[in-house]
Design brief:
Structural class: alpha+beta
Strand content: 5-15%
Strand order of the largest sheet: 1-8
Number of helices: 19
Largest sheet: 2 strands, antiparallel
Shape: elongated
Length: 452
C-alpha cells in the first residue's frame, strides 16, 4: 500500500511580502550587538551522522522518535565527506521576519526567532528568503523551525559526540575587560598626569611625538632635526607592528568617543556621501601640512581633538579656551556613524593608516567557521564599519582593510563561532585588498551606521 502525506494547505491569496531591503530587527528587542546571546553551534568534525539530534528534536511534541518532524536536519556532505547541519541561526536581522506577510515571525529579547502558529499560513515565503533554508515543512505540510527549545535545546543535550553546542562563545569578554582599563589608564596618563604634552613626551630615555605634528613642524620650520624625526617614527613603527592600535587602545579622544557612544542616539541620520568618504582624512592631512608650510605654524594642532582633550584638564585650561567646543562638535558627528571623525577626518589616523596597510597585524575571518549571512555580529559591533555586511550576506569571505582597522578586537571578542582571528605576518594578496575595500566603502559606509 502506498503511503501518502497530507498536501500542504496554501491560502487562496497571500499578501505581498515586504521588500528585503527593509530588513531590520524589531525596535522593541534591539540590543547592543556586543551582548552575549547564546547560539547553537555545529562542529562537523565531531558529528558521526547518527541522527539522534533529529530523533530527539522531532519527538518534542509526540514523545517518540520522529526524525521527519525535526527542526534540525543533518545531511551527509558527499563532496567533502562528513556531515553538515541545517537549522535556524536566529539572525540579528532575520530575513524571514522581514518578508513574512502575516507578521507571524518575531524575535524576542533573548535573540530567539519564533513562528507564531496562530498567524502562520504556511505560505513558505520565509523558506525562500532564508539563506540557511532553516524553515522546514513538517509531515503535515506546516512550516516549522528551531526555537532553541526556549533556551534549552534538547539536540545539544543529547548529542553523544557534542557536535551540537549551545553557547555564547568564549567564557569571558577578556578583550573588552582589558581594553577599557588600558584606555582609562592612557587617558589619565595623557590628559591628567602629562598635561598638554601628548604631542611630544618622554618616557625614560625614549622621546615620542605625534607623527602628524612632526610633519607640520618640519614643513613650518623648514628644519629637519633627526631627534624630532626619530621621536615621530616611534608611533609609526608601532603602526607597522600593531596597525592602528593607538586609535583603538590609546587615543584619549577615541576613549571620549567610546564613552559618547553610550549616550549618543544613532537613528536614520546619514552623513552626505561627500562627508562620509574615507579618503577625506588624507586630504585633511595634506591640508594641515600645506597650511603649516604656508603659515609657519603647526596649523592643525590648535584644533586637534586629541590635543584639546589632553590640554583640557585643570581650571585654567577649562576656562581658557573656546577650543573645547571642538570636542562636542566632533562627537556629535557620531549621530550619523560611530567614530565618524576616526573614519573620515583624523589626519593622525591617516598617518597610521598609510603605514598599517603594509603592517604585520591583521584581522582574518575564517571562511569555514564563519556563518556569514546569518550571524554578522562582527559587522554590527565594528566601530569603524569596515566589515562588509554585504559580503557576509552574500556568503563571501570578508576582506578586512588593515588601513582602516583600529585593532580594537571587538569582532574577535564577540564572534561565537571563533571565526575572527588576530593574525601577525604579511598576508597574501587576497587578504590585503585595501583598494577593493576602499572602493566598496569609501562613500557609503555611513549608511550602515557603523555598528552599535
Amino acid at each position: 500500500m502506498t503511503q501518502t502525506h497530507p498536501t500542504p494547505q496554501t491560502p487562496p491569496s497571500v499578501p505581498p511580502a515586504r521588500p528585503l531591503k527593509e530588513i531590520v530587527s524589531p525596535s522593541a528587542v534591539r540590543h547592543r550587538p556586543a551582548k552575549r546571546l547564546n547560539t547553537l553551534l555545529f562542529h562537523p568534525e565531531r558529528c558521526s551522522g547518527c541522527g539522534l539530534c533529529q530523533s530527539v528534536c522531532g519527538g518534542r511534541e509526540s514523545g517518540r522518535a520522529s526524525p521527519e518532524a525535526s527542526r534540525v536536519q543533518v545531511t551527509g556532505n558527499a563532496a567533502r565527506g562528513g556531515s553538515f547541519a541545517v537549522f535556524c541561526q536566529h539572525c540579528f536581522s532575520p530575513r524571514c521576519l522581514a518578508v513574512c506577510p502575516q507578521g507571524a515571525v518575531s524575535r524576542d529579547g533573548a535573540g530567539i526567532v519564533r513562528i507564531n502558529k496562530a498567524l502562520c499560513v504556511n505560505c513558505g515565503i520565509c523558506q525562500q528568503a532564508c539563506t540557511e533554508a532553516a524553515p522546514l515543512r513538517g509531515p503535515a505540510g506546516d512550516i516549522r523551525k528551531c526555537d532553541l527549545c526556549d533556551g534549552d535545546p534538547k539536540c545539544a543535550k543529547n548529542c553523544p559526540q557534542q557536535a551540537l553546542e549551545y553557547t555564547g562563545g568564549k567564557k569571558a569578554q577578556w578583550i573588552a575587560y582589558l581594553r577599557w582599563p588600558v584606555q582609562i589608564l592612557a587617558f589619565l596618563l595623557l590628559a591628567v598626569v602629562l598635561v598638554g604634552s601628548v604631542c611630544s613626551l618622554s618616557i625614560a630615555a625614549l622621546d615620542i611625538s605625534c607623527p602628524t605634528g612632526v610633519l607640520q613642524n618640519i614643513v613650518s620650520s623648514k628644519v629637519l632635526l633627526l631627534t624630532s624625526l626619530a621621536a615621530g617614527l616611534v608611533l609609526v613603527a608601532l603602526a607597522f607592528v600593531a596597525g592602528r592600535a593607538f586609535c583603538g587602545w590609546v587615543c584619549p579622544f577615541g576613549f571620549v568617543l567610546d564613552l559618547a557612544d553610550k549616550i549618543i542616539p544613532r537613528g536614520k541620520l546619514r552623513l552626505p556621501a561627500l562627508v562620509a568618504n574615507r579618503h577625506n582624512k588624507y586630504g585633511v592631512l595634506l591640508g594641515a601640512v600645506t597650511a603649516s608650510a604656508m603659515t609657519g605654524n603647526q596649523s592643525f594642532c590648535t584644533v586637534c581633538p586629541i590635543g584639546v582633550v589632553c590640554r583640557s584638564y585643570g581650571v585654567q585650561s577649562t576656562l581658557g579656551g573656546a577650543e573645547l567646543a571642538v570636542i562636542p562638535l566632533i562627537a556629535a558627528m557620531d549621530i550619523g556613524a560611530k567614530r565618524s571623525w576616526c573614519r573620515y577626518f583624523c589626519p593622525v589616523g591617516a598617518c597610521f593608516a598609510l603605514v598599517a596597510r603594509f603592517g604585520l597585524l591583521h584581522i582574518e575571518i575564517g571562511a569555514e567557521r564563519c556563518k556569514k549571512f546569518s550571524c554578522k555580529r562582527c559587522a554590527e559591533v565594528c566601530p569603524v564599519g569596515i566589515i562588509p555586511e554585504q559580503a557576509l550576506q552574500a556568503g563571501e569571505r570578508p576582506v578586512i582593510s588593515k588601513a582602516e582597522c583600529i585593532a580594537c578586537l571587538r569582532c574577535v571578542d564577540v564572534c561565537p563561532h571563533k571565526a575572527a582571528k588576530l593574525r601577525f605576518g604579511l598576508p597574501g594578496r587576497a587578504k590585503t585588498a585595501d583598494s577593493a575595500v576602499y572602493a566598496a566603502s569609501a562613500g557609503n559606509t555611513a549608511s550602515a551606521g557603523g555598528g552599535s
